[in-house]
Amino acid sequence: MHPSRPQFQAATKALDLVLAFDRAADSVLHDFFRAHRALGVHDRGFVADAVYGVLRRMRTVDYLAPGRAPRRMLLAWLARCAGTSVRDLASLMDAEEATWLAGVKAISLGELPLAARLELPDWVVEKLSASLSEAELVALARGLNEPAPLDLRVNTLLAKREDVLSELAADAILAEPTPYSPLGVRVRGKPAINRHPLFVRGAVEVQDESSQLLGFLVAPRRHDLVVDFCAGAGGKTLLLGALMHSHGRIYAFDVSAARLARLKPRLKRSGLSNVHPQAIGSENDARVKRLAGKIDRAVVDAPCSGLGTLRRNPDLKWRQSPQSVTELTLKQAAILRAAARLVKPGGRLVYATCSILREENEDIIGRFMDEHAHFRSVPCNDLLTQQRIALDTGAFLQLRPHLHATDGFFAAVLERAST
Q: What is the reported pTM?
């Protein structure tokens, strides 16, 4: 990287805003670019790459440039992590900074503790070390610190995957089928996919392959009644609607009306008519309770730490804490219990998170099963085999970036007894 002075100054300003860690980094950058419309495409690209680069390598950067001064953090990242020579940075620095950066180049990183070398908070490494060897931890951290590819899901109501691949190839966009999801397309590079005709007409949606696979565990039938708790902007909802061929009925619940508002344009593009978004006050809302015992499929994509999504959201490493995870587990258990009350005899309950922490995943399911004898666990590997998906991670779906090239992801499938 050889940034110009305006690019470096813009990145410094953006990083300073992101380091407040009071909002998601992508939201901060979105607002920053709106406020700095004079920045060109390449300028914005540098700013985004630099900010996310610092967030990914912040343990190293903090060691090289303590004090969280954005300007020095960027210089340290450029010189030690991005491979930029001090000579190429000379025009950006005064004499004092140049002397300081020369010293930074000489600092040995060999004595960094394990968590710092993994670019993870100490508390995360401590939790993961309970079930992973050091070699497994290193491999997982390496995968989490790599930028994520762009995954698309083909809307089978409007297109076939082979036709999508052909249209992308005709526009010189490199893409290939995802290895597991039969609906997935993995795109190379950073094309402006939201302006591509395929996206505009609803033939594709942006969705990580891990989340696509969740739909095949839910496996809704055409005329089912389905509830998607924590529907958010509706990526899973739209997938389920397409799998149901726009038949049946899907209730998309979320406590955030703003998140559901982002579903509306996506729903319009999708061509679906079986999706019914509803903002609720909580998991105990009257609109939820009236569906008790009536639902064929209930999905809980629970609010979680998001630590499985660090490839695309590296700021979450620094915005979460042991305390926030404890608070999240209480919400996760409460939402799962509420969803279970909706499931009719013989119906299916699917719990999922984009977390890699056991306490948000297996522990939640274990406690639920202890308290709900009328539910049984259905092995995810068996369900995927039935769908002709060649992926076996055992009874639970447990995906990792270094093993599966997806986000870190967890899912469990539970079935209510017929009587």
A: 0.94
